[in-house]
Design brief:
Layout (H helix, E strand, L loop, with lengths): L7 H4 L9 H6 L7 H20 L8 E2 L11 E9 L3 E10 L2 E10 L2 H4 L3 H18 L9 E6 L3 E5 L2 E4 L16 H12 L5 E6 L1 H12 L3 E7 L3 E8 L19 E5 L17 H8 L10 H4 L4 H14 L19 H12 L4 H10 L6 H33 L3 E7 L1 H5 L3 H12 L5 E6 L6 H16 L2
Parallel strand pairs: 2-5, 5-8, 9-12, 12-13
Antiparallel strand pairs: 1-11, 2-3, 3-4, 6-7, 9-10, 10-11
Length: 468
């Protein structure tokens, strides 16, 4: 059969045994043995310990200042602000024990405000907050405790103060970097004179993910984001955190543990996992806006998985293993988004490669055979599986160091939610890597950055009242 014709029967019956040997060989560096994954876990554990001791490490191990998870006694009305992209949300959560009623509204941030001056950005947020309070007849009520999810790099100084390290995600509001973002929010509300707020917690979306799951199941002690980016946090004993001695946690009356923000996207930035990186990882990194930074994230997250697949396909086409050697269309950077990887994996799982054919035609590739479709699906599977395996190595590292008999892991993010097999591959591989005396479950988090922020506010309010 000519290479540019199709056998629908073959497209509907993808068979891994028909993947050509040279294609498998080109992808073999993506195949990670359990021994290699255990090595990754051990290296991560070493880096975490170094970070907690304040020694040079690629893992920041940042304090969240959150010392407890929900216990079901939290009650009352709480506000949440969620700022992490071009839209932001204001939410009102009414807590009645184990029930949470939530209403919220999404507000757009115009580009000129994202890139203008900081006071204008926070004035806009203050205006939207005032509108929301007016809409819900809350302007005249007592100050409600507010949790502020701020999903940008922050050096947190206590539960209610944190300095912006640098803007990301297209934001560049001047005068905010190096400043306390909570103070910016308070000042914006003070300038209005018609609303007053009580910011009781500043957090990032990973911590929110943990808290949102802990509300449903208080065995949740780990939060993981697997989306455009990736990160993880977990509950750590303060006795394992020498670098936090300066805060005097050992002398206060609060629980002697804290949620630690690992910032694991930067794992490997010091070269500690270079033995895993392929030529394709190096190319993705070299073409990114932050070369040499967030190398673990670039092997796992939704921003990069599609681009890794594309670079493999370019190489295979150049070597005449795909598309009859026609690599022009696939050579366009970012023409193969991670959504395509999920779509192809989903249809392949149903025994159908016709969606693969449609995607390749959409990109503009002309010479496509049924075996090309099979091989493209194989590359998607190999790259996705490696991402799930590396995530499993990270989660099993945290579970092993915690040494708790049973822990729930709260997970959120587009890769975990929308990739058809990621959750199952991840679960199975954690099970392979974890010591048999430890057990866990994965739980999909519901709205960590919104509901989670209000729950952090609720827990902070409860703990404060308990120790007054």
């Amino acid at each position: 059969m000519p290479r540019n014709q199709f056998s629908i029967s073959n497209l509907k019956n993808p068979d891994a045994d028909r993947v050509r040997l040279e294609i498998k060989k080109a992808c073999e560096k993506f195949m990670l043995s359990d021994d290699n994954l255990m090595k990754v876990s051990k290296i991560m554990d070493d880096e975490m310990n170094r970070g907690l001791r304040g020694e040079p490490s690629c893992l920041k191990m940042l304090p969240s200042f959150i010392r407890a998870v929900p216990n079901g006694t939290e009650r009352g009305d709480f506000l949440a602000l969620d700022l992490g992209g071009t839209n932001f949300r204001v939410l009102l959560i009414k807590l009645k024990g184990d029930v949470a009623e939530m209403t919220g509204k999404v507000y757009r941030i115009p580009e000129e405000i994202m890139r203008g001056v900081g006071t204008a950005l926070f004035d806009h947020i203050g205006q939207c907050l005032a509108d929301f309070l007016e809409e819900h007849n809350l302007k005249e009520s007592k100050e409600l405790p507010l949790g502020f999810t701020f999903s940008f790099p922050v050096e947190q100084e206590n539960l209610t103060a944190g300095k912006l390290i640098n803007w990301t995600k297209g934001f560049n509001a001047k005068g905010v970097e190096g400043q306390d973002v909570v103070q910016f929010l308070r000042d914006a509300c003070d300038r209005r004179k018609d609303i007053s707020i009580d910011v009781v917690a500043l957090l990032n979306d990973t911590v929110g993910t943990l808290m949102a799951c802990a509300f449903k199941d208080n065995t949740c002690q780990i939060g993981v984001i697997l989306g455009t980016g990736t990160n993880a946090c977990y509950m750590e004993k303060l006795s394992n955190c020498p670098k936090f001695k300066k805060y005097g946690f050992d002398k206060d009356k609060y629980p002697k543990e804290m949620i630690i923000n690992i910032e694991w996207g930067a794992f490997g930035d010091n070269g500690c996992i270079d033995f895993l990186r392929t030529e394709f990882d190096r190319d993705v990194d070299g073409g990114s806006i932050n070369p040499g930074k967030h190398l673990f994230e670039k092997m796992i997250s939704g921003m990069y998985l599609g681009e890794i697949v594309r670079l493999v396909l370019v190489k295979l086409a150049k070597e005449k293993m795909l598309f009859d050697g026609d690599y022009e269309a696939i050579s366009k950077p970012n023409c193969f988004p991670t959504k395509f990887v999920s779509d192809i994996e989903e249809q392949k799982g149903l025994g159908d490669l016709r969606r693969t054919l449609q995607i390749l035609q959409q990109i503009g590739i002309n010479k496509i055979s049924d075996s090309d479709c099979l091989h493209v699906a194989y590359v998607c599977e190999v790259v996705s599986t490696r991402a799930a395996y590396l995530t499993a190595a990270g989660i099993s590292c945290i579970l092993t160091r915690m040494q708790k008999k049973f822990v729930t892991v709260g997970v959120d993010g587009s890769v975990y939610r929308f990739h058809p097999k990621f959750d199952k591959i991840l679960d199975a591989k954690i099970n392979d890597l974890l010591p048999k005396n430890l057990d866990y479950q994965l739980m999909l988090s519901e709205d960590g950055s919104g509901r989670g922020a209000a729950l952090v506010a609720a827990v902070a309010d409860r703990v404060r009242k308990e120790h007054e």
